[in-house]
Design a protein that fits this description.
The protein has about 110 residues and is mostly beta strands. It has no helices and ten strands. About 0% of the residues lie in helices and about 60% in strands.
Length: about 110
Amino acid sequence: MIIQNGYIEQITVTGGGLDETTRHPVVASKTYNTPIPCQYVSTSKNMLAKSNGEPVTQMSWTIYVEALCRHFNVGERIRLIDLCGNEIGEYSVIRAIPLEAVCQIELNV
């Protein structure tokens, strides 16, 4: 049993790439699947990180979901949302560990 404090939504990206006639980039569209109740815990927060010389905040999370017929692939994109519906961020799944004793899946993002 998880102690729910948010939701995750699996992200499906379609389209994108280059237009064949103009060779200009085409924007990909995102769709979000049904929200899945989850429990999330912050595992690290780096406020001194930089990307292209600009300061950024890097965060990683451990997320627990019930293992009822769900499958998560490494590299899959998910969106993390709190109980109020505020988006915390979009992350890639780094590792998915089945916790068979408690019927849960631990996601590291």
